[in-house]
Design brief:
D-Amino Acid Oxidase, Chain A, domain 2; 19 strands; eight-stranded mixed sheet; about 400 residues; FAD/NAD(P)-binding domain; 2 domains; alpha+beta
Length: about 400
């Protein structure tokens, strides 16, 4: 529900109204917690990104009223094909090997964020739009948070602050430090049209000059192509036919040939992590806790698992433990394995596949073939992509 008058106290303040913040707000409020969500923007901006959501993420969203096929227009992903340019190495992941109807779904970020905001406005959590958080003061018994409003600053107290806003406020915290590693790469994003139907298959192609992914998106694909910054600028400037020719040359016969191109965009890539996902009266979820390379499509899925876990920890703790050290330490302990494994896996993929060394390239090819030949190993890998480390 929309909050027209900010309170002087909220048990839980969630900062950030994207899909991760919306999920934890909805889940906590439905469980009877007094929740206020503050979102700096009044409206969700246009965003060209398409996101790969795992089947488990779809289930988590659905369980909290945040999945609506009519509003989101998801495209099912039944298979994932992984290969390396210039070698025979390839493997495939399939939903039926896990007994699932789909491995996941592609949805547009803007559609998901707008639907989440509509659900929140009709739900039990109080939500304040156009309300940026300016300062956070951490104290032993509570946090004092100053928000910006059209009428000036407003300070309220809360027992727990949950940051789900992408990490912009980490500088306000005295006991959590962010680490950043630039990949010196940019992601080129474009909608591309295949010559033949994609049949719900996603493609991950490790090309010689950077990985590229094709996500089924309606009848088309959403292309995410990792390039050096200079290379990304060059690709954005190419004529349509030349751009498609370069992509098709890197795909070879491993994916449908591409015959149409929509608008293109790019953004810089970096790995951002923190030394702790909890501080005094503060917990981090989603991109506030970690921002990953898009190579394996795990960023939002990891953030949604953060939200589900933290909500479960709060729901199963005595009321007087809200925001206390023991409760937050439990959340950190439960999330550490999954977050560390996924973070190191995505970062390691970039390191592993960026070397042009012929011997290493051959070894990577053999690794993909071995994964394809070992059904139990392949199923375990697919299960980890869907459910995380459990």
């Amino acid at each position: 529900m929309l909050c027209t008058t900010l309170p002087s106290h909220a048990d839980i303040l969630i900062v950030g109204g994207g899909p991760v913040g919306a999920l934890i707000a909805q889940r906590l409020a439905q469980g009877g917690q007094r929740v206020l969500l503050a979102e700096a923007r009044r409206d969700v901006p246009d965003d060209p990104r398409a996101l790969a959501l795992s089947f488990a993420s779809r289930e988590a969203l659905a369980a909290n009223g945040l999945w609506d096929a009519a509003a989101l227009a998801p495209t099912a992903i039944g298979r994932v094909h992984i290969s390396q340019q210039g070698t025979l190495g390839r493997t495939g992941l399939a939903a039926d090997e896990l007994g699932l109807p789909e491995l996941g779904y592609t949805v547009r970020y803007a559609a998901l964020a707008r639907h989440a905001q509509r659900v929140l406005q009709a739900g039990p959590a109080a939500i304040s739009l156009g309300t940026p958080v300016l300062r956070i003061r951490q104290l032993p018994r509570y946090a004092a948070v100053t928000l910006g409003t059209p009428h000036g600053e407003h300070t309220l107290t809360c027992r727990l602050v949950i940051l789900a806003e992408g990490g912009k406020l980490l500088g306000e915290l005295r006991d959590i430090r962010q680490r950043s590693k630039s990949y010196e790469q940019s992601a080129v994003l474009a909608e591309v049209t295949p010559a033949t139907p994609h049949e719900g298959c996603a493609y991950e192609r490790f090309a010689d000059d950077g990985p590229l992914a094709l996500l089924p998106d309606g009848r088309n694909f959403m292309l995410v192509w990792t390039q050096a910054p200079a290379g990304a600028a060059d690709r954005l400037a190419l004529a349509e036919a030349d751009f498609l020719a370069q992509i098709n040359a890197r795909l070879g016969r491993r994916a449908p040939q591409l015959v149409g191109l929509g608008a293109r965009a790019s953004w810089p890539l970096a790995l951002k992590t923190v030394d702790s996902v909890v501080g005094q009266r503060v917990a981090l979820v989603g991109n506030a806790a970690q921002t990953l390379h898009p190579v394996a499509g795990q960023g939002l899925n990891l953030g949604l698992r953060d939200a589900v876990t933290l909500a479960e920890v709060i729901a199963t703790s005595p009321a007087d433990q809200l925001g206390e050290t023991a409760q937050l330490a439990r959340y950190q302990r439960l999330r550490s394995q999954d977050a560390n494994l996924v973070t190191h896996f995505t970062d390691g993929l970039i390191t592993l596949f960026e070397s042009p060394n012929p011997a290493l390239k051959h070894a990577r090819s053999l690794g993909l073939l071995a994964l394809d030949a070992a059904a139990p190993l392949r199923r375990g890998f697919a299960r980890r992509m869907v459910y995380g480390a459990r």
